[in-house]
Amino acid sequence: MPTSTTTLTTTNPSHSLVLVDYELHRSSPPPAEPHGEQRIVEQSRVSNPPDWPADHRRVPAYRPVNTNLNPEDRIVFNNRGEQMFIRTMFFGIQVVTAFHRTWTMTAGKLNNGKTFCYELGGEY
Q: Which residue ranges does the record annotate as region Disordered (predicted)?
């Protein structure tokens, strides 16, 4: 595979701006490089098709977290039915347990527990 060598100079301060935006701090200073030193980067001769998107793969721009949001202003459920559905999904095991206990304490005693019991492999 053919490769080419490209030289880059590090004069772009955009990396420092990104660190400031995200409030990242370096634990140790970067190694000192003589002024004007160039790094050598190997780059392959592969290019993307012209119809590929070049907008950073649709990653949204950085937005700082808004710590002043009021949780009461957010709409969690659209209606009562949706709220009950989501609660049933999240607490489904508790619902099944409640139905099982109710069944075994009432009608389950009348049929000796055989109504909703199914034989599994090797039990019949």
A: 25-58
Which pTM does this prediction carry? 0.26
Q: Where does residue 108 rank: exposed (0-12), middle (13-18), buried (19+ CB within 10 A)?
A: middle
**Rounded to whole angstroms, how far apart are CA atoms 8 and 41?**
7
| Residue pair 100/92 in contact by the 8 Å Cβ criterion | no
Q: What is the pLDDT along the chain (124 residues), one digit of tens a residue?
A: 555 555 555 555 555 555 566 666 677 776 666 665 566 666 667 787 888 777 766 777 788 888 888 878 888 888 999 998 988 888 888 888 898 889 888 877 777 666 767 777 776 5
Q: Is residue 122 part of a domain?
A: no
Please give the sequence-ordered ranges of beta strands (E in DSSP) within the chain, or none if there are none. 3-9, 38-44
Q: Is residue 59 part of a domain?
A: yes
Check if the beta carbon of residue 44 is closer than 8 Å to that of residue 6.
no
Contacts of 19 (CB under 8 A, 6+ apart): 25, 26
Q: Is residue 27 in some structural domain?
A: yes
Query: CA-to-CA distance for 66 and 40, rounded, in angstroms?
Result: 41
